[in-house]
Amino acid sequence: MVRKAKAALCREHNKPVTVEEIAVDAPKRGEVTVKLGACGVCHSDLSAINGTIALPLPLVLGHEGAGVVEQVGEGVSDLAPGDHVIFSFIYMCGKCRFCVAGRPVLCLEQGKALTTPLEGTPRVRDASGAPLGIFSGCGSMAEYATVSAENLIKIDPKIPLDCAALVGCGVTTGVGAVFNTARVEPGSSVAVFGCGGVGLSVIQGAVIAGAQRVIAIDTLEPKLQMARKFGATDTILFKEDPVKELKKLTGGGPDYAFECVGSGELAATAYRAIRRGGLAVVVGVAKPGDSTSVRTMTLPFEEKTLTGSYFGSCVPRVDFPRMLSLYMAGRLKLDELITRRYPIGEAPQAFADLQAGKNARGVIVF
Ligand SMILES: NC(=O)c1ccc[n+]([C@@H]2O[C@H](COP(=O)([O-])OP(=O)(O)OC[C@H]3O[C@@H](n4cnc5c(N)ncnc54)[C@H](O)[C@@H]3O)[C@@H](O)[C@H]2O)c1
Ligand SMILES: [Zn+2]
Ligand SMILES: [Zn+2]
């Protein structure tokens, strides 16, 4: 059965998204159709629009989604209609050396399911019948989505779907960068560059990990106020190079710094800020041509590390339930991350608000 669905599309780079009625095919073997409950508006969707993340267009946007299983294809045994699920925007083959070693964010097969289900042909078409891609194998900014079963993680139906959606990207990316990539130690000091949905999740993760000092840096004052609500102990309004101030605040530099914007220059700033033996983690996704630099001598003499974190180095089947149990225990704030909810018809406004830095997270609700 083909299902009609309203969806947010990117047809042309740097143009406002269009909201259109699309046709979503029934699931083939190994696939599942989900009726979306909510989809967060992540900066990575915006990066698909402005070409930073260069995927072929036209594209159904959305990768931070949660919903209810509507129909399962042949061979899908672990999901059934009525199950609540969160989308995972990485395809995990489960067989390559990285999947087997518990590092599915590095799955060798990922590239195969970037804009379609794994089988490689599109399941969505526009009103004229032309095929559409789906962002990161999800395309969850739509009333229905048909995706590979491996892109879905079953969750407790008690969790509200708008909160659950955030775990599908921003929250797991941020908290996971702290827990899995950096393994932040209790009592440490942490600097966070950029306080959007991802950076605020890094801040929350750092607080849960027991960091003693969490310093938030952003170019917008309202974002710093949000950062304090999520547990930042200090804030710096980014006007000029903040390295001196960070060194002063921490007596030599923070133990960890997280770049959550997507700029090589800021990655270099984060690296310069950390103390001897410190760790700087790049979470933001920069333009393909962007690069960064470090003073080479600081690598041996100061034993500093610069690394990256993709999707919080997570294992979705382990980390999604972990995030949700922290939420259920009242330790991870998800409701508070949602500044505004939008109907799908207001998707263009939701993106304009993201670009203007108005929201911790905006969420499309269906
Ligand atoms: N590594 C991953 O797996 C992963 C996953 C999701 C998102 N991302 C990336 O993380 C980044 C953040 O995503 P988001 O959804 O939180 O974005 P966002 O737009 O909601 O937040 C970005 C924040 O950075 C601030 N900012 C901009 N320039 C700054 C500067 N020079 N110094 C300090 N702050 C600055 C903005 O004011 C804003 O508050 C994006 O690049 C996104 O593509 C990466
Ligand atoms: Zn995202
Ligand atoms: Zn794999």
How can the largest sheet be summarized? 7 strands, mixed
How far apart, in Å, are the first and last alpha carbons? 21 Å
How much helicity do the residues have? Answer: 25-40%
The total beta strand count reads: 18
Mean pLDDT: 97
- Which ligands are bound? nicotinamide-adenine-dinucleotide, zinc ion
Helix/strand order:
EEEHEEEHEEEEHHEHEHEHEHEHEHEHE
The Rg value, from CA coordinates, equals 20 Å
Query: What's the total helix number?
Result: 11
The computed structural class is alpha/beta
How does the overall form come out from the CA principal axes? globular
Low-confidence stretches: none
Attribute tags:
alpha/beta, binds nicotinamide-adenine-dinucleotide, 18 strands, 366 residues, binds zinc ion, 6-stranded parallel beta sheet, 7-stranded mixed beta sheet
How does this structure look, described?
- The chain is of the alpha/beta class.
- Helix content is 27%, strand content 25%.
- It contains 11 helices and 18 strands.
- Strands 3, 5, 6, 9, 10, 17 and 18 form a 7-stranded mixed sheet that branches. The protein has a 6-stranded parallel sheet with strand order 13-12-11-14-15-16, with helices on both faces. Strands 1-2-7-8-4 form a 5-stranded mixed β-barrel.
- A hairpin with a 7-residue loop joins strand 1 and strand 2.
- Helix 4 packs across helix 5 and helix 7 packs parallel to helix 8.
- The longest helix is centred in the middle third of the chain and has 13 residues.
- The protein is globular and about 65 Å long.
- The model has no long low-confidence stretch (mean pLDDT 97).
- It binds nicotinamide-adenine-dinucleotide (NAD) and zinc ion (ZN) (2 copies).
- One zinc ion (ZN) binds next to loops.
